[in-house]
Amino acid sequence: MRSLEELNAIRDKVKDHVGLRTESGQTKDGEVRAHVLVCAGTGCTSSNSLQIADKLEEELKAGGLDKEIHVVRTGCHGLCALGPIMIVYPEAVFYSMVTVDDVHEIVEEHLKNGRPVTRLVYDETITESGIKSMHETNFYKKQHRVALRNCGLINPEDIEEYIGRDGYQALAKVLKEMSPEDVVKCILDSGLRGRGGGGFPTGRKWQLAMGNRGNVQKYVCCNADEGDPGAFMDRSVLEGDPHVVFEAMAIAGYVIGANQGYIYVRAEYPIAVNRLNIALKQAREYGLLGKDIFGTGFDFDIDLRLGAGAFVCGEETALMTSIEGNRGEPHPRPPFPAVKGLWEKPTILNNVETYANIPQIILQGADWFASMGTEKSKGTKVFALGGKVKNVGLVEIPMGTTLREIVEEIGGGIPGGKKFKAAQTGGPSGGCISADNYDIPIDYDNLVAIGSMMGSGGLIVMDEETCMVDIAKFFLEFTVDESCGKCTPCRIGTTRLLELLNKITEGRATMEDLDKIEEIASYMKQNALCALGQTAANPVLSTLSNFRDEYIAHIQDKKCPAGVCKSLLSYTIDPEKCKGCTMCAKNCPAGAITGEKKKPHEIDPSKCVKCGVCMTKCKFDAIEKK
Amino acid sequence: MSLVKTVPFQGTKEQEEKLLEMIRAHKGQKGALMPVLQQAQDIYGYLPIEVQKIISDEMEIPMEKIYGVATFYAQFALQPKGKYRISVCLGTACYVKGSGKIYEKLQEALQIQGGECTLDGKFSLEACRCVGACGLAPVMTINDEVYGRLVPDDIQGILEKYQ
User: Fold this and answer.
1) I want to staple A461 with a disulfide (CB 3.0 to 4.6 A). Which of A256, A353, A389, A560 is the partner?
2) Distances, alpha carbon A456 to alpha carbons A196, A225, A226, A231, in Å
3) Tell me: the pLDDT tens digits for A359-390?
4) Which residue of chain A is at minimal alpha-carbon distance from B97?
C-alpha cells in the first residue's frame, strides 16, 4: 500500500458488499441479494457452526444459488448462549441454535422461497406483523458497539472487508495529517481509559513514552493474555476483527516512535491465534504493516508471542518478562515500562479492547467518544455476561448503564424465576456487588467505591443458589494456584486466607477468624509486589462486607444458607413423602440409605457422603437438603 | 501417577531432527525460549528432561533457567499426558453453573485426581480456566472436542465413546 488512493479504491470496491449487512437499509450488493452470516467464534464452532457453513455452501451450490447468496464466516455475535447463530441479511433474520440438519430447510424455505423458518428463528423476534430484525431485540437494541463494531459483521480472514468498513483510514489520517502530539491530545481529550483493569488514561500512558523519539528503540505491546476466568471480550475482538488491533498498535508506534510491536496472546485461544496469523500475513501483503507505510517513511511490524497459561502474565511487567523468555514474574515499578520496559527499552502496553477503540476515536473525534459514558469514564465497555443469566454472551454498553439494565433487560433476567443475589466483576481482583447496588451506574469509580473493580469486564451473575463464601473460596483457590511466588505477602497471604475460608466452609471457624481475614487482607493490599497480590483479597473482603450474615451463618449456626458447602449440609428423608420405592437406596454410592420396600427409608448421616444423588433420583421430592 | 512417572523417554530420531531444525530456525531471535519450548512440546507431547537438555545445549541457555521456565507455566507438561486429554473448565462462569460437580464426577469415573493420567495412559484429567465458551457452560474438552451444557450424568456416556 503506497498511497491513500489505493486504500480508498479498495474501500469503495467492497463498501456495498459489507454494506448489505448493516442497518443502513441497503438491499443490493451487485448480483448478490442476500448474505448468510454464520458465527465462527469459539462458542459457536464448539457446537459445529463450521460444518453448518460448509453444508450451507454445498446446498446453495446444488440449488444454483451460490452466485446470488453469499455465506460469510464471521466472528462472535455476542449472544453465545443461543449458538450456533446464523443471520440472514439484508433483513437481519436471527436464527439460533441451528444444527446441520436444519440447513436444508433454511435454504429451501427461506432462501429460495422467502419464508423464514419460524421454528428456528430466535423467539423474541417473532411478532404478529412478521419477523423483526435482530437489532430490535432487547439483547441488541440497548447496545452501542464501538470496540465490537465489526465483530460478527465482517469476515475476519479477509482484510478487504475490514478496509470496506473504513479500516486503516485512521492510520492513514494519523500518518498523513497528524503529529504525534495531535494524536495524544485527541486520545487524552476523548477520556479513554485502559480497558484491561486499572483504568489508567491511555493518552497519558502514550505521552509518558513519547520522549526521545527517533533516538532509541521502543516497543508497542498488546496484552491479549485475557486471564480473568469468565471474560472473553478480547478473544472476541481478536477472532472477529484482528486488524483493528494492528491498526491501533501502528498508530501507537507512530506516536511514541516505535517500529516493532508484540501481541502477547493466550495459547488457549487457538482460533484467535490462527486468525491473527492470517491477518498479519494479509496486512503485510497489502503493505499496511512493514516498511514505508503509505509512502510516509514510517515502518512498523508486529510479532505474536503465545502465553503459556500464567494469570500473572496479565500484569504488565510480568508480561514483558515473559516475552523476553523468562519466568513471568513481575518486578517493582518505578521504573515504569514507559521508561524501561521490554528489553529495558521504553514500551507501552495496552489491552485489546483499549486498542479496538482507537481508530474510531481518531476518525470520529474525541468529542464524539467523550459524549458517551459518565463524567470520568468515557465511551463504552464490553462485558462478558455469564453465570445465572438467560442471555449469556458479550454486550457492549455505554459506561454508566446500571447493573439492573444489564442483567434484567439485556441479559433477559435470571432463568428459573430465581432471585438476583450478586454480580461479580473484575475477576480474581474484583468483588461481588449485592442487590443493594443493583441501580448503581457502572463505571470505573463507582465500582471501586463499592469494593469491586471494572477489571477486564467479566460480569458473572449469581442467584440465591450461590454461596458467597464458596465463591470467595473459589477465587482464592485460583490466586493460590496462580500466585507467581515471588513476593511473600501474596504467596503466603493467599494460602493463609484460603485455609481460613476452608475452616469456615467446614464449620470449624470462630468469629475471630473473620478478624484474621481482614488483618491478612489489609497486609497483602499494602505489601504485595504487584496489582494481583494487592487485589487478591478483594473477593473475600467484598463478600465479607456485603454478605456478612452468610459468613456468620456458616460460623455460628454451622449452616450454609445456599446449600452449597458440603460439610454443613445434611440430607434427610421426609417419611410422609417417601413411598419406599428404593430408588435412592439403589443409587446411593455410599450405601447410606436403608429401609424396607414400600416403607419410608432413612439416611445414615455417618455414612452419607452428601453427593446429592438420592435427591436427583427421588421421584416424590421426599429428600431434603438443609 | 507413579507408573506414568517412570515412563522412559521414547523420543525418536525424527523427533530430534525436527527439534534441532526448529531451534536453528529461532537462532539469534530475541526471547526465543518460550516459542522453542512451546514447539518442542508440540513435537514430543511434553517436555521431558532429555528434551530440555538438548534445548539447553543448542541454545546455550543454562538448564536451571530452562527448568525454571518450563515449571512456571501451566501449559508446559513435564509428564506425558493421556491419549485423551480431558480438561474441565473451572472458570467463574462454568463454576457457577456447576462445573465443579463435573470435575468430581470425572475423578470418580476415572479413579484419578486432577493432574493425573490413568494407568493405561488413556485418559489424563486437568482443570483449566476458561476456554472462552462461556455460553455453553459448564464446558469440558477432550483433546480438541468441546462438550458443553453438561450435567454429571452425561459423563459416563461421553467417556464410553473413547473406550
Assistant:
1) A389
2) 5, 11, 8, 7
3) 999 999 999 999 999 999 999 999 999 999 99
4) A387
